[in-house]
Amino acid sequence: MKGMLSPSLMCADLLNLESEIKALDKAGAEYIHLDFMDGSFVPNITLDTTIIRLVKTVLKNMKRDIHIMAYNPEKYFDAMEISAGDIVSVHIESCENVLDVLSEIKNRGASPFIALSPDTDSGVLNDYLDIIEGVLVMTVYPGFAGQPLAKGSMEKIASVRKIIDNSEKDIILEVDGHVSWDLCGQMRKNGADLLVAGSSSVFSGEYPLGEAVSRMKSLIS
Asked: What residues contact residue 23 under an 8 Å CB cut-off, 6+ apart?
């Protein structure tokens, strides 16, 4: 699978979100990463359900990649208008019945992903390989941008890649956290398919957004 890119909107210029989304879309990013936090499951609050819903009205080619860091994530599906084409990642620890939540995502036509925090063992995936369409490996602790890479992250990406390959199922491996210019290639070599780019690359301010997306896509192709 070719490398795909999902720039993280929480790292964008919040006063100019529409223009930033359009620039990312025009530059060829496949997804736009949308972080939702409830201030309880993680100690932060970022994009609200209204913004996540309204993003749909701006997109032309990109699809939504929604990462819900909140207890009982299914409570927010209606407000976000979860539908076909969306990726929706949820944490096992945030769900009362994770199979029911994953099934609800699938019933809405979206792609159910399990998100793994740095401290969540990759072996838990074996119970959900028949329903998930992807795994989001967090290489920083969920909640805040700009963190250093968590210890053992590269090994964890490789471990998840092995589980996916052994399953012989068509499952996407997404990586989120310190996806920098220097580390994105190694993440790809360890098995990442989809990379979430934030403050350490696309939104670092070193390049205009269009050029930053092109540079990142060339590094992960």
From this structure: 208, 209, 210
User: Catalytic one among 25, 35, 65, 193?
Assistant: 35
Whole-structure pTM value: 0.97
The tens-digit pLDDT sequence of the chain (221 residues) is 889 999 999 999 989 999 999 999 999 999 999 999 998 998 888 899 999 999 999 999 999 999 999 999 999 999 999 999 999 999 999 999 999 999 999 999 999 999 999 999 999 999 999 999 999 999 999 877 777 899 999 999 999 999 999 999 999 999 999 999 999 999 999 999 999 999 999 999 999 999 999 999 999 98
165 among known catalytic residues: no
> What are the tokens at 20?
């930033």
Query: ∠ CA(148), CA(154), CA(160), 5° rounding?
Result: 125
Question: What is the b/e burial string over 60-94, where b = at least 16 CB atoms within 10 angstroms of the residue's CB?
Answer: eebbbbbbbbbeebbebbeebebeeebbbbbbbeb
How far is the C-alpha of 90 from the C-alpha of 145, rounded, in Å? 18
Single out the catalytic residue among 25, 65, 86, 176.
176
Q: How far is CA 40 from the centre of its chain?
A: 20
C-alpha to C-alpha distance for 165 and 173, rounded to whole angstroms = 11
Length of the chain: 221
Q: For residue 13, indicate whether it is catalytic.
A: no
